[in-house]
Amino acid sequence: MEELTGAGTGRRVLVVDDTASIRFLIRMNLELAGFEVEEAFDGVDALEILRGSASLPDAVTIDVMMPRMDGLAATQAIRADPALRDLTVIMVTTQGHPASVQRGWDAGVDAYLVKPFDPDHLVATVAELVRNGRR
């Protein structure tokens, strides 16, 4: 499993979710795998962090249902911004209906995970995408 982790790599992930307990759960699992984690409350916060950052994270996990700007709109904004468009984006949401999943793919996500998620699968998905780049 060593090759699947962020251990010793300085890999960074921005976790975007309006629910503090979900941010904490994702953060803890990614940090245990060796990733550095930053958090944002919603899409507006995420874009402010990304656009103001001297160095971009290696990946973004993002929820769909959030105030001010949802994850779909934030993902579309990321894909539309030349400075951000190559970021790996992983949707982590309760929205598991096939039409919702399709909206995620259409917005430009690289992976779509439905809550409740298996923490090992989340870490493996993030690690694989960070290692291999966008799909």
- Topology, number of strands: 5
The number of helical runs is 5
Instruction: Report the end-to-end length measured between terminal Cα atoms.
Output: 21 Å
Mean pLDDT: 91
Which structural class matches the secondary elements?
Answer: alpha/beta
Order of helices and strands: EHEHEHEHEH
Extract low-pLDDT stretches: none
Largest sheet: 5 strands, parallel
Radius of gyration, taken over Cα atoms and rounded to an integer in Å: 13 Å
User: Major sheet: order of its strands?
Assistant: 2-1-3-4-5
**What proportion strand?**
15-25%
Describe, in plain words, how this protein is organized in 3D.
The protein has five helices and five strands. It is α/β, with parallel strands linked by helices and 135 residues long. Strands 2-1-3-4-5 form a five-stranded parallel beta sheet, sandwiched between helices. α3 links the parallel β3 and β4. α1 packs across α5 and α2 runs parallel beside α3. The longest helix is centred in the last third of the chain and has 14 residues. The radius of gyration is 13 Å and the shape is globular. The protein starts with 11 loop residues before the first strand and ends with a helix. The model has no long low-confidence stretch (mean pLDDT 91).
